[in-house]
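2024-03-11 09:14:02 DEBUG pipeline.ingest accepted 1 chain
2024-03-11 09:14:02 DEBUG pipeline.ingest length=726
2024-03-11 09:14:03 DEBUG pipeline.predict start
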Amino acid sequence: MSSLKGLFLKHVYRTGDDDLFHDFYKPVLSKAVKYDRAVGYFSPSILAANLRGLGSIIQSNGTMRLIIGHPLEREEFEAIRYAVTSPLELAQQYTATLLQWIHSDKDVSSKSLELLAILIASGRLEIKFAFRRAGMYHEKVGIIYDSYGDAVVFQGSANETPSGMFEHLNAESISVYKSWEPELFEAYGKVYQEGFEKLWNSEQKNTFVVDIGSDFYAEVSKYVESSPKLKTFSLLDIKGIEEQIAKYEVEQINTNTKNTPNVPDFLNGHKFKVKDHQKVALKKWRANGYKGILKLATGSGKTVTSIYGAVKVYETLKNKNRGLCLIIAVPYIELASQWGENLLDFGISSHKCYNARNSWLPSVQESIATFNAGIKDFICLVVVNRTLASNEFQQVVSSINPKSMMFVGDECHNHGSNKINSLLPLSDFRMGLSATPFRSDDDEIDSMFPNVSRENLLSYYGDIVAEYGLGDAIHDEILTPYDYHLVPVYLNDAEQEAFEELSEKISSIITKSGAQLSKDDKEKLTIFCGQRSRLLGSASDKLKKLSELSSMIPESMRNLTLFYAGEGKPFKQDEDAHDCKVIDQVSDVLYKNGWKTSQFTSAINSAERKNVMEAFKDKAINALVAMKVLDEGIDVPACQTAVILSSTRNPRQYVQRRGRVLRRFPNKRKAIIYDFIVLPNSDFEQPASKKLISAEMERVNDFLLLADNKLQVEKQLEQIGLYYDI
C-alpha cells in the first residue's frame, strides 16, 4: 500500500476549482488505515459518503472513529433537545435512529448499510455523540493516517454528504495540513489532531461527548449474525463497493436534479399529510378556474399549500403533454431562501432570481429556452418583487406561454400598487397568499384615498376563495395559544401637544379636500402622518417601561424573544444624538439590563442575517430586535415571546407580528405577547385623545379576542379607564 506522501495534495480545495470527492477524498481514503472524523451534521445520506474509500481500512484491519453533532434533521434535533435535558437521554434517542437506519435500506444504498453494520459489529467503527452546553456541535474535521504513520488533517465547510462533495451542488472548501510539512502541521494540523483526541475523551470545554453504548453494538452484532443476507457478505468482498455506492448516490443526485415535482412521503421528519383546511383551500381555488387569493392565518402552512397545489397542476398538465413554469414572487431575500428550501422537499430545484443579475439571468435564459423547446417539462423561478419589476426579468419571462405558467404571489398585498400590479405575468394559473390581503398602509391614517390596492389585487388574482382564520388555527392546534399583556405608555406634555397639532393638520387636509385629494395634499398627509407615527413610536415613556419590563424578565425566560421597535429616528432628540434611531435606543436599554441581543434589519446583508438567525435559534443571543423585516414570511417558529413597542396602527403589521410568535414548536405550549399601547396624558374625551385611544383599542380588541387571559386584561383596561369593545 502506497503512502499519503505519494499523493499530490493541495493545501486548499474549493468547489469550482476542484472536485472534492475525486481530487481529495477518494485518493486520500484509499491510503487510510485509520480515519478519525468529527462532523456537525449527520443524515442517512452520510452513511454511504463516510464509507467511500473504507475498503482499504477493512483490508488493512484499520479502524474509524466518528463523532457526530446531531444526526437528525434540525427540526427533529430541536424537538428532542427541548424534550430531554440529559445528553445520555439524547444519545439514546440518536442510537435508536441509527438502529432504525441499519434495519432499513429505504433511504440509502443497501450495500452501504450492510457494510456499516459489519464495520460496527466487527469493532472497526466506533461512534460517539457530541453535545454543547448551549447550541449545537458544528465542527467538521477529518484526520487520515496511513500505514507509515503519516497523517493528513483536513478542516472546512464540507460535510461528508453528496451535496458537500459533488461540485455541481454546494460550494464548499477545505484546508489540508500534512504531517510531513512540519511547520504548517505544527501550527494548524496538530491543533485539530489534539482537539479530536480531547473531544473523543470528553475533555473539551463546554462539550459533552457520549459513548453510543455497548447495547447498541450488541444489537448490531446480533442483527449481523441473524441476517442471511449479511452472513454471505464477506469483509473481503469489497471490490468495487466504493464505485457501487458512488454510482448509487450519483443516480440519486441526478434524480433529484431532474427537478420533477412530487409529493414527499415525509416532511420535517413526519409523514406528510395535507391538512383539511389546505385541501379545502385548493379545492376552492381550482373550482375558481385556478385563480384566487388564499387568506390563511400566518403560520397555517400557506407555503406548503401552494407548493402542493403547484405539484398537482404540474401533474395535470403533464397528462396533457404540457409543461409548467412556476414563478414565485416574494418581498424579501430571506423569504425567497426559505421558499427555496421548502421547494426542495417537493423535488423542486429553483432558480434564485435575486442578488446580482449575472448570478441568475444566464441560467434562467437557458432554462426557459429548453422549456419552450419542450426539452424540459418543468422549471421554477423564485423572484423578489424588486427583481420581478426589472426589465431583465420581464423580458426573459415574456417568452413563456401563459397557458403553461403558474404565478404565486406570497404576501400578495405587496402587489396592489399600480406599478407592480401592471408587471405581474398574465399566467393562466394565479394564486395569491396573505393573511391580510386588503389592509393597506392607508389604513394607518383612516384616509379617504380610494382603495386602489384592493381593486388591483382582485383584478389580477381574483376573489378571496378560501379563508382560515387565527381562531380556526388555534382551535385546530395548528398554532399555539397565547397570553396577551398590556404595557400602558403615556405621552408627556410636549408629546401630547405635538400629537394634537399633527392630528389637527391631518384632519384639516382631509376635511377641506373632500373625496379628491390633490398631489400636494397627499404629500402633506404623508409627511404629517409619518411625523405622528414617529412620535407615537418613540414616546419617551416607552423606554422607561421597557427598562422596567426587561429587567423583570428572569434570564431563564429571555431566550427566543422578539422585540419590535418603531421605525426611523425619534420624533425629537438631542442634537448630539442626531444619528440615533429608535431601534438603537431599544437595543441600548436591553443591553443595560443584561440582555444579549442582535438587530435584525434590512441594513445587514443576507449572510449576516443568516448568522444572526442561527445564533438566535441556538440561544447564543436572547433576542432579536427588528422593525419590519420579520413581518412577512420569515420563519422563527422557536420564538416564544414578542414585545411590540412600535404602536403600529397597520392591521397587517400587527397581525403578522402576532403570527410570528404563534407558530408551533416542540414543548412550546403557549406564546406571550407584550403590547405597548400609547395613551394621552390629558382628558380621554378630547377629540385627538379619543382618536388615539380608538386606534390603539382597535389593535387591543383584535389581540384580546383570542387571548387565553382575556378576563385579566379586561380588568386591567377598566382600571386605566378603557373598555373592551366586543
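2024-03-11 09:14:41 DEBUG pipeline.report The domain at 4-254 is CATH 3.30.870.10 (Endonuclease; Chain A).
2024-03-11 09:14:41 DEBUG pipeline.predict end
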